[in-house]
């Protein structure tokens, strides 16, 4: 400071900003509630399935993932402990306070009486229990699965006329729309709402040219197909609850524009008669039916004739009773008077 020349020195100071414990635990996967920075997460709903009357070994398998939470302060990563809040059916389950794995202790007797159980899971910081989060774990009780889904046929024939349009549904014999349905006897009318249909990967570029809809309909990009081409598609039906699968094969033939799909070869061709045996059987049945009708008609006519005769006899009897010349029984009839005529010959 007192010299003519000025001298100075500099130094670099690094300031490390530490994460403070100001965030609560968050259940994963994170579902952002709004476009905040950092994102504000809402707790997911964990779902799992159990079968009535059965006690599953090991922890339950939840979706969209295992029950798991972490500290919202990423720099601190405070340890998390788990607990089940008291509920109507919470005593049936046990939760590991370190891992969050939930285990079924007692089997559920009836899926009709208890179709589902809703659990409340609390995750809190070990060093500060006042910082916690709560998520729902939904346990669905299913009836026993005795039958896997099965396609009625192992192979289907499909046809599709080439056209310049973008997409079209695959057809089967007779021009009918091909609809694949996996039958599951565990459900009324065999319709399982949890069956999902998919195409197997890597066959004839099926993922690029074809798509299977949730209702079992197949859609193709028609403008990418050429007449005379053939494709072999593998369709999978998977029960999302039990994990059981079934598959079938669809053999597709691309037709020329305007060409109609062929008829089913198992059906009789139109315009031709039935087989001789069927014709003979039908003729015999018609003759027998005609004979029965004729006998019934004759019996009806005879019955009507007897009724007419009886009515005629009754009317005649009634007329005789009421006529004044009719003599009642037990009385002698009066003698008719003697009449004489002119020119009548007399005899001695």
TrEMBL record:
User: GO CC: one term?
Assistant: catenin complex
Region Disordered: start and end of each range?
A: 254-275, 311-348
| Domain of life where this protein originates | Eukaryota
- Entry's Gene Ontology BP terms: cell migration; homophilic cell adhesion via plasma membrane adhesion molecules
Name of the protein: Cadherin domain-containing protein
What positions does the domain Cadherin occupy?
42-151, 174-264
Q: Which Pfam families match?
A: Cadherin
Keywords linked to the UniProt accession: Calcium, Membrane, Repeat, Transmembrane, Transmembrane helix
For this UniProt entry, which segments traverse the membrane?
276-300
Coiled-coil annotation reads: none
Q: Which Gene3D superfamilies match?
A: Cadherins (2.60.40.60)
Where is it mostly found?
Answer: membrane
| GO MF term set | beta-catenin binding; cadherin binding; calcium ion binding
Read off the InterPro entries from this record: Cadherin, Cadherin-like_dom, Cadherin-like_sf
Which SUPFAM superfamilies would you find in this protein's record? Cadherin-like
Query: Where does it localize?
Result: Membrane
């Amino acid at each position: 400071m007192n010299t003519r020349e000025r001298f100075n020195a500099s130094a670099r100071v690094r300031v490390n900003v530490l994460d403070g414990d100001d965030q609560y635990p968050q259940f994963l996967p994170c579902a952002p509630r709004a476009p905040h920075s950092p994102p504000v997460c809402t707790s997911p709903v964990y779902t799992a399935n159990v079968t009535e009357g059965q006690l599953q070994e090991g922890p339950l398998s939840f979706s969209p993932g295992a029950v798991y939470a972490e500290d919202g302060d990423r720099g601190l990563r405070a340890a998390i402990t788990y607990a089940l809040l008291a509920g109507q059916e919470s005593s049936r389950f046990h939760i590991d306070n370190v891992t969050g794995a939930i285990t079924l202790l007692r089997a559920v007797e009836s899926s009709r009486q208890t179709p589902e159980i809703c659990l409340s899971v609390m995750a809190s910081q070990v060093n500060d229990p006042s910082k916690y989060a709560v998520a729902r774990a939904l346990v669905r009780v299913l009836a026993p699965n005795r039958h896997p889904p099965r396609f009625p046929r192992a192979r289907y024939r499909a046809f599709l006329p080439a056209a310049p349009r973008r997409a079209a549904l695959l057809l089967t014999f007779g021009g009918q729309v091909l609809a694949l349905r996996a039958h599951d006897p565990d459900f009324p009318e065999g319709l399982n709402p949890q069956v999902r249909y998919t195409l197997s990967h890597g066959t004839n570029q099926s993922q690029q040219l074809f798509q299977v809809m949730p209702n079992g309909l197949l859609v193709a990009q028609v403008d990418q197909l050429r007449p005379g081409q053939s494709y072999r598609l593998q369709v999978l039906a998977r029960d999302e609850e039990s994990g059981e699968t079934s598959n079938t094969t669809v053999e597709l033939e691309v037709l020329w524009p305007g060409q109609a799909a062929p008829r089913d070869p198992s059906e009789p061709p139109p315009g031709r008669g039935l087989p001789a045996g069927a014709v003979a059987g039908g003729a015999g049945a018609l003759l027998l039916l005609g004979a029965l009708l004729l006998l019934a008609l004759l019996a009806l006519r005879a019955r009507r004739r007897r009724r007419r005769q009886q009515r005629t006899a009754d009317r005649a009897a009634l007329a005789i009773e009421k006529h004044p010349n009719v003599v009642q029984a037990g009385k002698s009839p009066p003698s008719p008077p003697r009449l004489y005529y002119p020119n009548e010959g007399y005899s001695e």
